[in-house]
Amino acid sequence: MAESSAGLSKEERDAVKERAKELREEAKAGKNREAGEKAVAKAIEEMPESDAAIAGRIHELVAEHAPQLMPKTWYSQPAYANTEGKVILFVQSAAKFKTRYCTLGFSEDAQLDDGQMWPTSFAVLEITPAVEKRIAELILGAAG
Question: If we measure between CA atoms, which residue out of 15, 40, 1, 4 comes closest to residue 97?
Fold first, then answer.
């Protein structure tokens, strides 16, 4: 059997370990914005330059349009939680799981419902003015 059929890939196992570490660190820090900002800054710093540019701009857009969201990391990636502590949006580096593009994703707690079907993640290749405008709209909608 191929490794992917036998269970979690190495990248997935590493992500699970990183998430367990994040949970332990969050428990120590509590809901501390400064600790969250530091964790997100570190996660962005560790990304390849192209992904870091995208994640960094998304981070700025979240701070500008939804400052009530708490920055944190989720599976070692930048994420933003609502007042209940639930992650509602996150950035996933293309390099992290060896995918073609950086992803802006939304959890089920994001308030993006639109009829019977709506997207929950977006490939982001570059931040242009039009892309930035759409991301800002999504952030506003997700945050409620």
Answer: 15
141 closest CA partner among 40, 65, 63, 55: 65
93 Cβ partners below 8 Å, 6+ apart?
A: 47, 48, 51, 55, 77, 102
Read off the pTM.
Answer: 0.81
pLDDT, tens digit, for every residue of 109-134?
A: 999 998 999 999 999 999 999 999 99
DSSP code of 125?
S
Torsion-angle region of residue 75: left (phi > 0), alpha (psi -120 to 50) or beta? left
Shortest CA distance to 110 belongs to which of 121, 99, 101?
Answer: 121
Nearest Cα residue to 70 out of 100, 114, 26: 26
For residue 48, what pLDDT is reported?
96
